[in-house]
């Protein structure tokens, strides 16, 4: 373990700042002093040991910043989707585009599309999940596409896959529709609005073989599980001796994530593939939760919630815990997986949903038109908007793990200077870990 980590460090092409080089010497000594166990533990703690995270990136507040935000213009993004194009569909108040996420203990690095494209050169990035994951995929495509000339980017569809290609970088950013991760009767990317949802709880291969070899995988799955009971199927949809059982929500979710994690454990190349799991995306369906009348929802909201720690009843902490535990187990099995805990920060953004300003798939009834609250979409997010910040957080993780992370090294250099007087072994170890990650 120790030996391997050292080789990784020696192998980097980073231009070491002299202070960093000095730090490096300490790290080498520290490794020999503390031995192997320590490193295993820190390996698994990833974010806690990188410089941005003596800082919890997910704990912070929204700051109005119309100088830096939005990061792109809705109408300038060639790949925008009508479900998320709130301005195009008549939203007048555009302040939802101007909020920056400010962690309490550090600043996020500014998103740099060229930098990200360099990091994913020759690679395949796949978002796997439901329409919220697709929201985030569209956001990522919009974030990077402005850095690419028109002839060098394209999009095409291949079954459940939507593929954005950055030709010059030989890189793709893809979205794979699998709202429950495992197989189900809702797997058709277009017609999946079925009254009776049936999940083939033990089967994932039909989907997974399309993304297993990706370099970066970003999963989500939450809202589609939110019903008191789920019909689970053992056997195949066609088989005559199939068994269908109704199983309660938490148990079904747990079983699905087990199927998913067992697949990853057996099939993912641990040196190649980095995995991310997005925690649940909150909804704003019940105005009473933030002090409005019972009948209201996100419709007509124009400001975020500023009450720190605000948590809506749609975000099920028990399900988050199940996901977090599954991920923790995968980490102990040596997979490079990270949960991006975006629930709390998104909870604050009651005003950032499309509400009625999006393409409607089904024509509205007179009754609905008379009462906009009744058909407001308080689940998805307008773009530019909240999913951009999810991707900015993802960007931090992708940067930190790449080989020539100049920003990381600069950051360490500054930290080392700041801490020069009080350097102790523990600190060196923690900062040194970043170099191990480079
Ligand atoms: C996610 O972040 C929130 C707020 O910072 C915290 O309360 C919650 O425990 C975190 N969840 C996990 C699984 O880390
Ligand atoms: C930013 O917001 C401030 C205050 O609302 C306003 O005065 C200013 O004109 C805005 N700037 C831009 C570029 O929109
Ligand atoms: C973005 O990244 C590219 C490639 O690393 C770099 O050349 C450029 O200066 C960066 N832009 C900004 C504004 O930092
Ligand atoms: C492009 O990337 C793929 C992997 O995604 C690789 O197999 C292929 O060789 C690359 N092509 C070029 C021209 O670099
Ligand atoms: C895993 O990925 C690494 C890096 O891409 C590659 O060198 C190695 O051959 C892969 N291992 C397997 C078993 O495919
Ligand atoms: C929404 O806001 C508009 C303009 O402020 C107001 O006229 C309308 O009554 C509001 N609708 C609801 C349902 O609150």
UniProtKB/TrEMBL annotation:
This is Uncharacterized protein. The keyword Lipoprotein does not apply. It holds the Pfam family PMR5N. The chain crosses the membrane at residues 16-34. Belongs to the PC-esterase family. TBL subfamily. One of its GO terms (cellular component) is Golgi apparatus. GO terms for molecular function: O-acetyltransferase activity. It is a single-pass membrane protein. It is found in: Membrane.
